[in-house]
Amino acid sequence: MVVQRLAARRAVQVENWEEAARAAGALLVELGCATPNYVERMSALVREQGPYMVLAPGLALLHARPEDGGLAPGLAVITLAQPVSFGHPENDPVDLILAFASPNAQDHLDLLARLARALQNGLDLQLRQSESESEMLERLHTALESHVCF
Known about the structure:
Layout: E1 5-12, H1 17-31, H2 36-49, E2 54-56, E3 59-62, E4 74-84, E5 94-101, H3 105-120, H4 123-129, H5 133-146
Parallel strand pairs: 1-4, 3-5
Antiparallel strand pairs: 2-3, 4-5
Helix pairs in contact: 1-2, 4-5
């Protein structure tokens, strides 16, 4: 699977984690990868299940189930002007959010695996060090395409 729909924003101003989730989700909607319902489900999952999507210090990986409104494979990344708390005991505050959508379970798992491998290889640090949104997009594209999943 090739992820061609990518979006990035730097230094996004938000007051809390829900605004951060909506900001990242709005990019997925703009890309045509998700419906507004998908974005609402991303936030609802955090409210219902806790901050399990905060995977590492400062990093949240937001998503919902494909049937919640995933339309196409896509990935959005935002950095926050000021970190926010999701309520995670060890990995708060969050300053980097990746949000993804996919239209079916197979694409969902494939994209999740690609992201996991890219993050293990330092994608989060690369995104934080990017000096422009175009640089963020280039790093995302390179990371996703260079990590073949088996």
